[in-house]
Amino acid sequence: MGYIDLHLHTTASDGVMTPSEIVRYAKAKGLQAIAITDHDTIEGLEEGLSEGKRIDFEVIPGIEISAEHSPGSMHLLGFFINTHHPLLNERLGYLQRARAERNPKMVEKLNRLGINVTYEEVLKASGGGQVGRPHFAEVLVEKGYARSFQEAFDRFLKKGAPAYEEKFRFTAKESIHFINEAKGVAVLAHPNTLNMKGYSELENLILHLAKEGLKGIEVYYPEHSAVEVAQYKTLAERYGLLVTGGTDYHGIEKNGLDIGIGRGEMKLPYSIVESLKAARS
Ligand code: AMP
Ligand code: FE
Ligand code: FE
Ligand code: ZN
């Protein structure tokens, strides 16, 4: 049995490969299954699923929702979602409109800082997919306002930075609800970005999310330390949650992480997919 990757981004959000390309790449790399999990959008799924059928490769329809949380960020993965579900589509439409309102405000903020960036340039960087801060970062680097993608975030785009603009998010409860309604399996992505103060605070949050319908935790993730992996695994076992994992691949040129393996340390068994299938509501 091969291995899997359950956290991937395509050009439908801020990844570098189109859905078809990522499916062909995963197969060529010897993976057995992948989930496409773009930020707040299902626009890449139809293409990814049909390419999977064409080349006989298993593609799981997924999504990654940014939910309301502070001080860190909370992302919720939804696996096996029914992309035609009306509530899911209504909620995602709302998020798209919120982004469409936010992006021009970030352009304005940059312009007020004396930075000559147009919305057209950012749109172009997005390649026709959903527009997000990573595309702003690309333009800022291209035009010489930042030396690197990370510097663009640190100086202008990260939460609290001068060009940052808040974006509407659903609560975790709302997000888990619409994932479940669309017959998806809701999983807490990379818990280390939650920035919880300590283990017991994290435990309380996970317990709360489990009561709202959370089904799993993304335990295996390139940015998790060995200690974190052990902690998240213990919490998953304690609360009867599934264990998943993925690389959060956006394109190897972006951060050096490759599909399926991350920096070389990941190799997740197909049994994870089988547990997810068993958990489908
Ligand atoms: P957006 O959805 O437009 O708010 O953009 C979120 C995306 O920006 C995330 O998925 C990351 O890829 C990237 N991102 C967010 N915060 C940072 C940061 N501090 N440094 C680098 N990239 C970031
Ligand atoms: Fe991203
Ligand atoms: Fe994420
Ligand atoms: Zn992601």
Write the layout of secondary structure elements.
Elements: E1 3-8, H1 19-28, E2 31-36, H2 45-55, E3 58-67, E4 74-79, H3 86-112, H4 119-126, H5 133-142, H6 149-157, H7 172-181, E5 185-188, H8 199-212, E6 216-220, H9 226-238, E7 242-245, H10 252-255, E8 268-269, H11 271-279
Look at the structure and give the mean pLDDT. Answer: 96
Number of strands: 8
Largest sheet, if any? 8 strands, mixed
Poorly predicted residue ranges: none
Strand order of the largest sheet: 7-6-5-4-3-2-1-8
Total helices: the number is 11
Strand content: 15-25%
Distance between the termini: 26 Å
Shape: globular
The arrangement of helices and strands along the chain is EHEHEEHHHHHEHEHEHEH
**How large is the radius of gyration?**
18 Å
Question: What are the distinct ligands in this entry?
Answer: adenosine monophosphate, fe (iii) ion, zinc ion
Measured as a percent range, the helix fraction is: 40-55%
Helix/strand/pairing class, anyone? alpha/beta
